[in-house]
Amino acid sequence: MPNSQFSSDLLPQHIAIIMDGNGRWAKKQGKPRLYGHRMAVKSVRDTISTASRLGIKVVTLFAFSSENWKRPEEEVSLLMDLFITVLTREVKKLHKNNLKLRVIGDKTRFNKALQQKIFDAEALTENNSGMVINVAANYGGRWDITEAVKYVATQVASGELIPENITEDKISQHLSMSDLPDVDLMIRTSGECRISNFMLWQMAYAELYFTELFWPEFNEQALLDAITWFINRERRFGCTSEQLQSLMKEK
Ligand code: IPE
Ligand code: IPE
Ligand code: MG
């Protein structure tokens, strides 16, 4: 797929994806839920390669939410094993392709082996200049905001900051991905139309795209469809359509 398919200034800089529907997809074909999680890896690979070829700057993938610990112990443990296997298997390829991998979320709840794998993968790819891939694992939007607020509260407690000087910027500086652009396009598969505590702050002005496809069915064409839909949205950021049009004329 040539890069010229979309003009680069129209592309979303940051795409976030709630990769949902693995379990239902597997069940539909009489297979255990884990089969769906395993097959999901191919969709992740397709998404990463298509997005980086198009010149997308950041892709954030929701892999495991802070609420997913409530699932049956067996499923949680199989998901953790899969996470380790995929990290081990894929990280060299990502590095070779100059991609930067980061894991966002509360990593302290993972076992030591997984924490080490994450640390190694992040260290190996941290100086790469290509697309950033954030894997959100044990991540929750409320957790993220709470951590930032805790940080700001310690600055207030130490006298470094007065409450009157707390601004949106001061809070966002301490969120995950504070060095990256906000989300432009959020995609959720499987027909569910909710945010499920994903990036609440960073998605404040994201365009929300919902598709009926289950995540293991998501492929290059599905991503291109979502991006085409995004390009046809008018992002007004509080302005009127007329204001935007006169701004465009001035350009
Ligand atoms: C998304 O698929 C993957 C994770 C949350 C880990 P699900 O496992 O939620 O699949 P459904 O929604 O039950 O079909
Ligand atoms: C959201 O999916 C989290 C991930 C995709 C990792 P869920 O399937 O857990 O979301 P809910 O519980 O149906 O909202
Ligand atoms: Mg689900």
Automatic annotation (TrEMBL):
Cofactor(s) the protein needs: Mg(2+)
Pfam families: Prenyltransf (PF01255)
Recorded catalytic activity of this chain's protein: 8 isopentenyl diphosphate + (2E,6E)-farnesyl diphosphate = di-trans,octa-cis-undecaprenyl diphosphate + 8 diphosphate
Swiss-Prot/TrEMBL GO biological process terms: cell wall organization; peptidoglycan biosynthetic process; polyprenol biosynthetic process; regulation of cell shape
Gene3D superfamilies cross-referenced by the UniProt entry: Decaprenyl diphosphate synthase-like
CDD domains: Cis_IPPS (cd00475)
Record GO terms (molecular function): ditrans,polycis-undecaprenyl-diphosphate synthase [(2E,6E)-farnesyl-diphosphate specific] activity; magnesium ion binding
Keyword ATP-binding applies: no
Domain of life: Bacteria
Cofactor info, note text: Binds 2 magnesium ions per subunit.
Binding site for Mg(2+): D20, E207
Active site: D20, N68 (proton acceptor)
This protein's record includes keyword Magnesium: yes
EC number: 2.5.1.31
GO cellular component, one term: cytosol
UniProt KW keywords: Cell shape, Cell wall biogenesis/degradation, Magnesium, Metal-binding, Peptidoglycan synthesis, Transferase
PROSITE patterns reported in the protein's UniProt record: UPP_SYNTHASE
Positions with a binding annotation for substrate: 21-25, 33, 37, 65-67, 69, 71, 188, 194-196
Subunit relationships: Homodimer.
Function: Catalyzes the sequential condensation of isopentenyl diphosphate (IPP) with (2E,6E)-farnesyl diphosphate (E,E-FPP) to yield (2Z,6Z,10Z,14Z,18Z,22Z,26Z,30Z,34E,38E)-undecaprenyl diphosphate (di-trans,octa-cis-UPP). UPP is the precursor of glycosyl carrier lipid in the biosynthesis of bacterial cell wall polysaccharide components such as peptidoglycan and lipopolysaccharide.
Family: Belongs to the UPP synthase family.
Protein name (Swiss-Prot/TrEMBL): Ditrans,polycis-undecaprenyl-diphosphate synthase ((2E,6E)-farnesyl-diphosphate specific)
Organism name: Vibrio casei
